[in-house]
Amino acid sequence: MEKVKIAIMPGNLYDDVDFRYALLPKKPGAYSETHRIHNRLTPIHDKFDIWIKPDVNLGPLGNKAVITGAGLCDSSYYDNGYVKARARVFGEYYIRVDTVPPVITPVNIRKGSNLGKTKRSFSA
Question: Between the CA of residue 23 and those of 1, 37, 68, 93, 115, what are the distances in Å?
Fold first, then answer.
């Protein structure tokens, strides 16, 4: 059974690549082993698709599963036994579960402020 799949569209690599892959041990708190997809120094023109199979049944946590690691991934989601995302760079990737809700802190908003004439800033 495949533990990881990737799809790179034609034209996204700038040159021929002697593609490398390594399976690394599971990181603490991870729901999959770590997959080294080539190396982070090789540029890629656009995002590529990555699917990672979790080591355990995610059950109700499936909708909170994300692919994380070497670089930014866009909108991870669980489908057909895999967590899928779009990655921006090569490197190490694995599955984690994001159960911590974000905290939004106003930066320049205070009680009694007139928000009609000011720029509003937030940090997450």
Answer: 14, 9, 15, 10, 52
Alpha-carbon distance of 4 to 72, in angstroms, equals: 17
Q: What is the pLDDT of residues 28-67, one digit of tens each?
A: 999 999 999 998 888 899 999 999 999 999 999 999 999 9
8 Å CB contact between 50 and 91: no
Q: State the pLDDT at residue 120.
A: 61
Phi/psi of residue 35, nearest 5 degrees:
-115, 120
Entry pTM: 0.81
Report DSSP letters for 46-73, one per residue: S-EEEEE--SS--GGGGGGEEEEESS-E
Dihedrals phi, psi of 55, to nearest 5 degrees: -75, -20
